[in-house]
Amino acid sequence: MTHSATQLLLLLVVLTDFAVLGTSRLSACIRWIAFQGALLGVLSLVVGGEISWNAVLLAAGTIVVKAIVLPAFLRWAIREAAIRREVEPLVGYLASVLLGGAALGVAFGVAASMPASVRDALVVPVALVTLMIGMIVLMTRLKAITQVIGYLMLENGVYLFGITLARRVPFLIEAGVLLDVFVGVFIMGIVVFHINREFDSISSANLSELRES
Amino acid sequence: MSRPASAWIALAVVLVLAPAVLGVASRTRAALTRRRGAPVLQLYYDLAKLLRRGSVFSDTTTSVFRAAPACVLSAALMAATIVPLDGRGALIRFAGDVVALAYVLALGRFLLVLAALDTGSSFEGMGASREVAVASVVELGLFLSFGTLAVLTKTLSLSGMLGAALAAAWPAGSPAIVMTAVGLFALMLAECARVPVDDPATHLELTMIHEVMILDHSGPDLALILYASALELSIIGAVIVTLLVPRSGMPVGVSLAVLGGGLIVIGAGIGVVEATMARLRLPKIPLYLASASSLALFSLVLVLWSGA
């Protein structure tokens, strides 16, 4: 039972990756990333097999941080900065979905040759896909908020890798990861907010025009 | 080679039911948008009316235009014989008949496009170019979906992919199969010119895709084309139904009931999509198709990976 549940959750994680990749509306992107966070929380509960206090705490922490606090923060940021959609990404949506497809192929190809240390080996390629698609979002979007979302997704990929080792790695490290992201996004949010206030725009392309005259 | 009677009966069911599926779709759409809507059997009335009328041909058209409707319908009928509509085996089957199915469908579209170009109307030319552009991307997704099934069931014939081998592959491959079915549904909407890609109810030539190509057809010719596109939708719908409910082990009666019921549900699904979504702008259509195809690609990768 837990095996098929894990599989279903992992597939949903990949689908949310693609959903973020193909969406231009920021509020929808945030909704998807929040959903992904919730999926990760449930996953960390299910993947270990037996339910321990450790796992429950980790799942609850993940859901609170990734699915509630961070998305709320991002929503606050887009409301403050008054932006609704990514207008001109560096790489178009069609091309980024195709890139995502390529990433999918590469991830599963690489994962097939990796030693599977976990019961459910699907975690490894899914973690890789999430990493890569997060990277694509991070690199190809201009709005700082979308880049934050890409960063979050990247981190979700790392977290998935962590889940595979959740039994062996102490709880503290996971908590450290969560804290890391939280601080990272917090700082990025503040930076975003300040960029917007100073320049009336949060397009990071404008930053390259800063030079000493 | 004799074929079981069930295949013939299933073919008859689909032939009779095809226009009703569209009727259910428009009825669902009407109900969800708080309107009364046309009767479910409207398309049958329309077809009967059109068949009683005469045809008008423009002077610019040639014999291609006159031959096209009959050829389009025969292509659709051909496609119906390749797909195992009863969930066991098709009337025509051979290794690689998937490719034949894709190209028989493409042949019908090609003839329709030729007829549209034959009228010399600039609007029809625009519609034709859009139709071909959409169809060429849809084909990619279609082949990815059938590739998934081929890898999963290790057969190259549709009768195998949708027959007993599919039922055997269900327990292990259900995520891939369900994703393929969802992807196929999205592709079907594009292939059959339904809402997120094309709006069959639109009356503005500038935004039409499929409907604009058949503006010059009239009377029985138009009836043939309308029936052929309804049939095409039901054929793809039957594939989706069979994917989600493998029917090879069922008794014939139950299997046919599932087919009929499934087609009605697909019609209702189309209606729900039409009621809840707006037609996409033309530049957005490639993204829609790429997303549907990436779903198919994902299931293919998944199947390949778990087989490796």
Can you put this structure into words, describing what you see?
The complex is a heterodimer of chains A (213) and B (308). The mean pLDDT of chain A is 80. Chain A is built from seven helices and no strands. In chain A, helix 1 runs antiparallel to helix 2 (26-46), helix 3 (53-81) runs parallel beside helix 7 and helix 5 (123-140) packs antiparallel against helix 6 (144-164). By secondary structure, chain A is an all-alpha fold. Chain A is 75% helix and 0% strand. Chain A has one domain (2-206). The longest helix of chain A is centred in the N-terminal third of the chain and has 29 residues, at 53-81. Chain B is mainly α and 308 residues long. Chain B has one domain (5-307). Helix content of chain B is 71%, strand content 0%. Chain B is built from ten helices and no strands. In chain B, helix 5 (122-153) runs antiparallel to helix 7. Chain B is globular and about 60 Å long.
Précis, in short:
Chain A has seven helices and no strands. Chain A is mainly α and 213 residues long. The radius of gyration of chain A is 17 Å and the shape is globular.
What is the 3D shape of chain A? globular
How do the SSEs of chain B run, as a string of H and E? HHHHHHHHHH
Residue share in helices of chain B?
over 70%
Structural class of chain B: mainly alpha
Total beta-strand segments of chain A: 0
Order of helices and strands of chain A: HHHHHHH
What structural keywords apply?
heterodimer, B: 308 residues, mainly alpha, 10 helices
